[in-house]
From TrEMBL:
Keywords: Repeat, Ribonucleoprotein, Ribosomal protein, RNA-binding. Transmembrane segments: none annotated. InterPro entries: NA-bd_OB-fold, Ribos_protein_bS1-like, Ribosomal_protein_S1-like, S1_domain. GO terms for molecular function: mRNA binding. The lineage of its organism: Bacteria, Bacillati, Bacillota, Bacilli, Lactobacillales. Residues 353-365 have a biased composition (Basic and acidic residues). This is 30S ribosomal protein S1. Residues 17-74, 107-173, 194-262, 279-348 form the S1 motif domain. Belongs to the bacterial ribosomal protein bS1 family. Residues 353-399 are annotated as: Disordered. It comes from Streptococcus viridans. One of its GO terms (cellular component) is cytoplasm.
Length: 399
């Protein structure tokens, strides 16, 4: 009878909500039986109250003889016996401690782990406590597929803590933005127009390539990728390539950096005087046709102009009437101006002048010149008619 009273007294010492120390007695399929220290009563610790991982093996988490700090949830009385046990939890005790740690820590950055993609965002864990990051607060751009964050550890800023409502909201986007701003300020502090820097190709678009300069992406516009015209960005660089580029322009307020790849490589006009000279006869390819002539590629990246007057000895109304893009032609170099990046070419200079044209010229030259019309002369009266007086002329007239 005395032993039973002692048991009842010890039981009365344990209340739901108490934090107790217990020793693991046995570990079965999905639960562990524990002895609550100083009470003489036992407790049951299920896998569900041990971890959030439903796939975990309880034998990997607790061992017989191990001492644990647990939270008493409620009393359980056996149906067929008078035994009294308690349902205890390790997970909820850790969550309570985590809540206590979180109160007043809004705007603080902590490390969390993505646990599950849920509707509208991502479920995360922080020291045993479950939190939530809305999809709009995961990155600087809206994230539709949050699965890629599951299993990852990353930093997030605490935005809201409400233990009563079990509400714990975080933002990864703000951390990313702040780090990007710091990196941007550091990069802009080091860069200057004209610098040659090394970067990695981050992404490629139809209008150019974005280069990661270590926190800031600079744009190499399509026109600055190569000395060649009308090239595809993918034919010049690939994502992941490390390249040297020249800084053309900086705009820190808008976070823009304009870069050039072709400015770091020799241009086709460098040393062109040693490659081309007036009088050279070379092969070329018609690249473009205009109303005033044809542009012929004579060296890689160098197009010369065959003016419409230099295409043929015959009259040409439109270059398209006699030439086609892609056509191979032989041309004569008339002039090379490296400073102005201009080469003048001629096709007709390599052709004989038509005989008919020569005959017509000779005929024009052999025609007698027309005599100039005689100029009007001022005739003077003969000397015999000079010396008349008014009286002589009008003497016979009666007044």
């Amino acid at each position: 009878m005395n032993e039973f009273e002692d048991l009842l007294n010890s039981v009365s010492q344990v209340e739901p909500g108490d934090v107790v120390t217990a020793e693991v007695l046995t570990v079965d399929a999905n639960q562990a039986n524990v002895a609550i220290a100083g009470t003489g009563v036992e407790g049951v610790l299920t896998l569900r109250e041990l971890t959030n991982d439903r796939e975990a093996d309880i034998n990997d988490l607790v061992k017989p003889g191990e001492t644990l700090e647990l939270l008493v949830l409620r009393q359980v009385v056996g149906k067929d016996t008078d035994t009294v046990t308690y349902l205890v939890s390790k997970k909820r005790l850790e969550a309570r401690k985590a809540w206590d740690k979180l109160v007043g820590r809004e705007e603080e950055v902590v490390t969390v782990k993505g646990t599950r993609a849920v509707k509208g965002g991502l479920s995360v864990e922080f020291e045993g406590l479950r939190g939530f990051i809305p999809a709009s607060m995961l990155d600087t751009r809206f994230v539709r597929n949050t699965e890629r964050f599951v299993g990852q550890e990353f930093e997030a800023k605490i935005k809201e803590v409400d233990p009563k409502e079990n509400r714990f909201i975080l933002s990864r986007r703000e951390v990313v933005e702040e780090k990007a701003a710091a990196a941007r300020a550091e990069v802009f502090g080091k860069l200057a127009v004209g610098d040659i820097v090394t970067g990695k190709v981050a992404r490629i678009t139809s209008f150019g390539a974005f280069i990661d300069l270590g926190g800031v992406d600079g744009l190499v516009h399509l026109t600055e990728l190569s000395h060649e015209r009308n090239v595809s960005p993918k034919s010049v660089v690939s994502v992941g390539d490390e390249i040297e580029v020249k800084v053309l322009d900086l705009n820190e307020e808008e976070g823009r950096v304009s870069l050039s790849l072709k400015a770091t490589t020799p241009g086709p006009w460098d040393g062109v005087e040693q490659k081309l000279a007036a009088g050279d006869v070379i092969e070329g390819t018609v690249k473009r046709l205009t109303d005033f002539g044809a542009f012929v590629e004579v060296l890689p990246g160098i197009d010369g102009l065959v003016h419409i007057s230099q295409i043929s000895h015959k009259r040409v109304e439109n270059p398209k009437d006699v030439l086609k893009v892609g056509q191979e032609v032989t041309v004569k170099v008339l002039d090379v101006n490296a400073d102005a990046e201009r080469v003048s070419l001629s096709i007709k200079a390599l052709e004989e002048r038509p005989v008919q044209e020569d005959d017509q010229k000779e005929k024009r030259q052999s025609r007698p010149r027309r005599q100039k019309r005689q100029e009007k002369r001022d005739f003077e009266l003969p000397e015999t008619q000079t010396g008349f007086s008014m009286a002589d002329l009008f003497g016979d007239i009666e007044l």
